[in-house]
């Protein structure tokens, strides 16, 4: 129920009005005056209560029972059929000799207001490898260096750090456990990608995890000879994402969003070096303490610990 701000009676107030008349013996004029409504209104609610009981005191829909000017159902189905064929509003209106505004209203009611809605969304990819170490997602996030807090904190775009340059966070995340790692490198070239991969593999090795394959996008650093040569030397299979399909590497993409929200832009840093110094602290909190929704709100390290226990008992 959506009452307007000047409503004198709510369903509870109507019931009180009826109660004063039928049980307390007040005259209808007196009960109407006490409720601040007209005598005609009071008689209306009395009549509804006598005819329908307590349900008669509820608000009724203002929608008419019939609408002589409504668009015929057969014509409405033709509008939807032509819209499914990707016709524009004006094309449909000219073909069926009707107003474009009417076409727009019918199409919007059917949920085909945008052309993108004509094609059903692809199912969400929830696949994951069963064991830690089966697949390592790699990705890169470019962040600007700064010497003073930027406009995200101060709101002043006049204070900039011109010429400070960029730094690149090379992230890695295990597909099964969601345990993540990352290192901040000066660029996104093949040498930096190799260095970041070696750092990640050393970190996971301390947790007892060894990988068999890595997944990357089609960035130039991951297609470089240096990176391919390193993968061959380590015996890692290289899996690439489909072009222009970031959802294939969705776990890394989602981790980057979380890192930006909870680390990079979560507080005011005096300079980018201070932000970089806080990276490993936040990463430890993410892996060991932060609850993860896809892991039944347990931290990512719980899956690796559970996997190690299963391996010891098997």
TrEMBL record:
InterPro entries named in the record: DNA-bd_IS481-type, Homeodomain-like_sf, Integrase_cat-core, IS481-like_transpos, RNaseH-like_sf, RNaseH_sf
Domain Integrase catalytic: 126-308
Gene3D superfamilies per the UniProt record, alphabetical: Ribonuclease H-like superfamily/Ribonuclease H
Highest taxon listed in the record's lineage: Bacteria
A Pfam family matched in the record: rve_3
SUPFAM superfamilies: Homeodomain-like, Ribonuclease H-like
Record NCBIfam families: transpos_IS481
Name the UniProt record assigns to this protein: IS481 family transposase
Organism from which the protein derives: Frateuria flava
